[in-house]
Every structure is written in C-alpha cells, then in structure tokens.
Design a protein that fits this description.
about 260 residues, about 0% strand, mainly alpha
C-alpha cells in the first residue's frame, strides 16, 4: 500500500508540474531504495493507469473548457479548442508502436536522468520564448501540429509532457497561461487514452487490486493541487525554477546511477 500511495503522490504532483511524472516514477523508487525504503517502481502499464487520476483532476479543474468543447457545434470557441486538441493528439499515436522500446528505456535509471537534463534545457528555452500574446482562440492547425509533435517526445520517460508542450506553445507565441491551458486540455486524450488502454491487460493479470485504486485517488487529489500550483507559478516566476530543478535532479541521477 505504501508503494501505491507514493506512486499516486508522485504521479499527481509531477504530471502537471513540468518535471516528468513518468521519470519520477522511476527515479523516486530508485532513490528510496538506496535510502533503505522498499518501494517497488510501477510498471509502464500501472503508470499509465495512474494517469486516470490526473485525468479526473484536469476534467474537474477545466470543466468549463471541457463543456464548451462538448458544445462544439454551437460554440465557436469550443469548436476551435476541440480542433486544436484533436489535431494535437495525432502525433502521440506513435506511442502505440514504441511501447516496448519505452519500457526498455526506463529500465535504466541513468537514461531517465539524462532525459530530465533535456527537460531542464527545454524549460529554459521555453521561458525565453514566453513573450507571446496570442489566445487559444487564435490557434491554427499548424500550431496544433507543432505542440502535438512536441507532446510525442514526452513519451520518453523523463521528458515532461506539460513542460515540452507549454514550451512549444510559448514558441507558437501563445500567452504563457494560454499555452498552459492548451497543454492541460491536450493532455485529456493523451492521458486518458493511455490509462484506459491498460485496464483490460491489468485486469487480466490480476493487477487491479485495492492498492492501485488508492494510488489513482491520491493522484487525482495531488494532480488538482499541482494544476493550481503551476498556474500560480507561471504568473509569478515562469518556468525557470522548474528548469533548475530538472537540471539538478537529472545531474544527481546520472551521478548516483551511472
């Protein structure tokens, strides 16, 4: 049960903070193990399932945007947002064909550390680009493809999905908070799809026990808090503190786990 609570906290806090939830689900158990605490790292399938908790968090936090997209036929802004989400999701479908490679990649804690270092550089560059003035209502297909391709790279454990998509949105000249809003909405099918696809396999393997559902619930609560924290941070300090964090943790990881 302790492992499930740790999984949920790590997943919820790091899914929306730009520090990579998948990466932390690898390095946190590894560091705890070095400290003498036995916390089993989750498989890629369980990690994807825990994303359903953070999906619930984003659906609740951005419920007004979600409702507008559901009314797309009669709501022009909702229709534009839905188009951006659908088009931006398409590049991430490559994940269906590289799952085994991603599983092998995260078997090495050092690999994840290097990916976290890359995330730090991405966040630093993204903050330098955070000078745009465009609104999400101004988004075009080209913008969705740019951010969507960026999201596909976040399939690599250690590359932050929110970090790389917010940075790409900044590069597309969206206002920083609008880039973050798009990142969260774009995460709905990406997060939900990966989690839902794992349910049959986990159920068939008998891995949907109470501890996994506890982890999901913890991830939902922590995820909601993380969304609020990130938006407040973007208003005040931007992405640089998260860049420093990723660079520091990434460097520590590759030193401790060469």
């Amino acid at each position: 049960m302790l492992s499930a609570i740790v999984w949920g906290l790590v997943q919820g806090l790091t899914e929306f903070l730009p520090v990579s939830s998948s990466g932390h689900l690898v390095i946190v158990p590894a560091f705890l193990d070095r400290m003498g605490f036995e916390v089993i790292p989750p498989s890629l399938e369980i990690s994807a399932f825990l994303h359903l908790g953070t999906l619930l968090a984003v659906l609740v936090y951005f419920r007004s945007d979600v409702l507008r997209m559901l009314r797309a036929r009669s709501d022009p802004e909702g229709r534009r947002a839905l188009m951006l989400v659908v088009v931006g999701t398409l590049p991430a479908l490559v994940g269906l064909f590289v799952e085994e490679s991603l599983e092998a990649f995260q078997d090495s804690v050092s690999n994840v550390g290097w990916a976290l270092l890359a995330t730090g550089v991405i966040l630093w560059a993204g903050q330098r680009l955070a000078t745009g003035s465009r609104l999400l209502a101004d988004g075009r297909v080209r913008d969705a493809l740019i951010v969507g391709v960026a999201q596909a790279f976040a399939l690599i454990p250690g590359i932050s999905r929110s970090g790389i998509t917010i940075s790409a949105g900044n590069g597309a000249r969206f206002q920083p908070l609008e880039a973050a809003r798009y990142s969260f909405l774009l995460g709905i099918p990406a997060i939900g799809g990966g989690g839902l696809l794992q349910i049959p396999d986990l159920a068939g393997a008998g891995q949907l026990g109470p501890e996994v559902w506890v982890g999901l619930a913890v991830a939902a609560v922590a995820g909601y808090a993380a969304i609020a924290l990130l938006l407040a941070s973007l208003r005040r300090v931007g992405l640089i503190p998260f860049a420093v964090y990723c660079l520091s943790v990434g460097l520590l990881t590759v030193v401790v786990f060469p």
